[in-house]
Every structure is written in C-alpha cells, then in structure tokens.
Design a protein that fits this description.
Layout: H1 3-9, E1 14-19, H2 29-35, E2 45-48, E3 54-59, E4 65-70, H3 77-87, E5 90-96, H4 102-114, E6 119-123, H5 144-155, E7 173-178, H6 189-202, E8 206-211, H7 215-227, E9 234-238, H8 246-254, H9 260-267, H10 272-292, E10 297-301, H11 306-316
Parallel strand pairs: 1-2, 1-10, 2-5, 5-6, 6-7, 7-8, 8-9, 9-10
Antiparallel strand pairs: 3-4
C-alpha cells in the first residue's frame, strides 16, 4: 500500500521506525529483535537505510596499492522483503545516488517492484570517508531531484532503454528528506526550500525530516513549506538521545541544535543510564506536542535500539 494513502486515510498520528541493516555476516535476527518489541504499536512503515560501499587500499606484493571495495552492511532489497513477509508491514528502502549508475538504480527498482514494495525514500546519500565532498558514480545521479525524476519516469512506463515497447509502469510512492534546520550544504534556508519544492513538483509525495530536538524548528519548517507551495505530508523524524557521547556527535554529524534546557539537563547526567532517562522524557514531551499539532506520523530513528522507543511509544500510542 502506498504511504501517501495510509497518511491521507488515517485520522490520527501514525507511528513508524527506521532501522539499520545488520553488519555484514550477521543474522537478520538482529533486525527482528529490534522490530518485535515495537509491533504492538502497529507501525505504518519501517524504513531501511542503505549504506554505500567504501574503499580501502591494500598493499600488495611489489609495493603497489590495490583499491578494494568494502561494504559493511548488506543492501536493503532482501531485508525489506523479509520484513514485509514476516510482519505484513510496509517496508521502505532508501534509494540513494551515491555508488549507483542510473542502470543499477533501474535494476534495483525493478527488483523492488517484483517484490511488491510500493514505497521508496529517494536520497542523494552522503559522501564516503575518503572523499571531501559528494562525488556521484560515473553514469549516476548528482542530486536526489534527478533520482526522483527517474522513479517518476518508470512510474510512467519510461525506462532507460528507449527501444522498450509497452513496458509495464512501476507504481512507487516517493518520499524525500527535509531539513528543519537546513541541509548543511545549503547556503541558506530559501535555497534549501527551492530544491525541496523542486523534488515535490517532480513527483515526491511525502517528506520525512532530519532529526530535531526543538519542535519549534519543525513547526517553522512546516509553515515555510506551506508558504512555499509545498503541501505534501511532512513527517517529523525523532531520535531519542541515549549516551553522553551523542551530546557532541549528533550536532557535529547532523548539524542540529540541542535546546538549552535539554542540554543543561543532559550535562547534569553522570552516566549513560541517566542520559537515556532524560532523553526518553524529552522525547515524550516532543511527541505529545507533535500529536497535539496533528503531525501525520512520528518517525523514530531507532537504529536497532528499540527499548527507548518502546518506552516513548507506550506513553503516546
């Protein structure tokens, strides 16, 4: 079922989660262990992230260096199929530009269609550690906008091979990312909004936001979207802060702010256990306010740690 249909038909705020694929060589049971405790809240969908391959250089005989591709986590196609089969819930794979040619993207989308997966989240993706900035794959897409356009073309029955006749159209519902505190590469919020609207105009049907800890940022973002002519559902993305290290790493990695009151409460914590309790309490209050404001869905970045998410969900759903 298309997520846009679920969102439009629901009369209450929905619940959804995002998970990481297991590390390479690990069992999918780790995925199930993270999802099982949350199924009582009937998630509308489960997002599955994609982690592109990276490269290392290995010294070989003779002294030359060989560039070797490594992938720490498997892809999302098989994981999404397994989740849908086990739980009868919509699984949403992340489709990214980085590391894919247009042909590889098309092949992945064809596989997803055959498996009955109706929804995708189209993202540019991050640069790999060895690159100072994002570098597209030769023959791949530079921007998420181009990726959205490719999916829309396939939905219209137009594939890369122009000689194909009577090709069956796909039927994907396309989601995209939004940034209440601005994408870190955007020069300003107006520029960020311009490209967000371009993706919606191209065919994106819903937005999932980057994590935030200040609801006012989300409310301002929603208003700015509406003022810019963006009228698709905007799903708030939530992260439950759970370790002292995250107080520094999350703002650095995701370019987000931690509100003063929240930061002061976290600074008083001596152990991660205390941080987790403060994080849960803060997220519960965030959720209550978002539900009161009729947010279409609360999307939790669980990353496999379901205990805290379950405690929050029990207070909200």
């Amino acid at each position: 079922m298309k997520l846009i249909d679920k969102l439009s038909q629901s009369k209450k705020t929905l619940f959804s989660i995002e998970i990481l694929p297991p590390l390479k060589g690990k069992s999918i049971q780790s995925i199930y262990d993270g999802i099982d405790p949350l199924m009582e809240f009937k998630p509308a969908f489960v997002d599955v992230t994609y982690h592109r391959e990276e490269y290392i250089y290995k010294k070989r005989e003779g002294g030359y260096l060989e560039k070797v591709s490594i992938r720490k986590r498997p892809g999302t196609v098989g994981i999404c199929a397994a989740i849908m089969n086990k739980y009868d819930v919509e699984a949403v794979p992340h489709i990214i530009c980085g590391g894919f040619t247009r042909e590889e993207t098309e092949n992945a989308l064809i596989d997803l269609q055959f498996l009955g997966i109706d929804n995708v989240l189209a993202l540019r993706g991050d640069s790999i550690k060895t690159e100072p900035h994002f570098v597209p794959e030769p023959g791949g897409h530079h921007y998420a906008l181009d990726l959205v356009k490719q999916v829309v073309e396939m939905n219209n029955g137009n594939y890369l091979d122009e000689e194909m006749k009577d090709a069956a159209p796909t039927n994907f519902c396309i989601g995209i990312a939004g940034y209440p505190e601005k994408h870190f590469e955007a020069p300003n919020m107006n520029s960020d909004m311009k490209w967000l609207k371009a993706k919606v105009d191209a065919g994106a049907e819903y937005i999932v936001t980057q994590m935030f800890f200040d609801n006012q940022k989300y409310f301002e973002f929603v208003k700015l979207c509406k003022d810019s002519g963006i009228n698709v559902p905007i799903i708030p993305g939530l992260k439950i802060l759970s370790t002292k290290a995250q107080i520094k790493t999350l703002p650095k990695i995701f370019k987000i702010d931690i509100p003063h009151d929240f930061y002061e409460a976290l600074e008083k914590c001596k152990e991660d256990k205390e941080v987790k309790e403060v994080g849960i309490k803060w997220c519960i209050e965030q959720c209550k306010e978002l539900v009161k404001a009729n947010a279409p869905c609360l999307h939790f970045y669980t990353m496999g740690a379901s205990e805290s998410t379950r405690k929050v969900a029990k207070e909200i759903f």
